[in-house]
Structure formats: C-alpha cells, structure tokens
Amino acid sequence: MVPEHGPYGAGGGAPPDERRPRRRAGAVGRHCQPEQVRATVPAHRLLEWQPADGWEPLCAALDLPVPDEPFPHENTTADMRARIGDLDRR
User: Considering the entire predicted model, what is its pTM?
Assistant: First the structure.
C-alpha cells in the first residue's frame, strides 16, 4: 500500500531528483568558495557584487534599467547594533 502523500514523501509524487529545480550555472556561487567561483565562471558572466554597490552594477549585469527608487539598505551594521543594544537593555 502506498501512503496517501505519495511514494516519495510529502513533497509529491515525483522522485526526489525530479522535484528539485535544475541548478543553473550561476548557482555555483552558493556552494563554493570565491576562488572556486572565479576559476569556474567566465569573467564576462561573473558579477562580484555587494548590496552597498547599489542598483547600477546589478542592473548592468542583468541588462535591466536602473530603478528610480533608491536601493534598499536594511539590516545595516547600525541597524544590527541598535537591535543588539535593545536586547542588552531588556
């Protein structure tokens, strides 16, 4: 008897390998050290970006227009220090 959630668990009827989205070449950075990424990804496809860089380099790499609104800066160092300070005062 097959359980009601399917033979491959609660995730559905497809085998585990078919449920996962296929990894794209750009996804290599999530699992590698920066040196490995630089050695693996062609320079013309690699964007080394930090949130402080803002919209411009990100939009240029994606060939998209830069939004009119400022780049969101949340969880800044100052924000985190304020939250930690709030915890210390409790």
Answer: 0.47
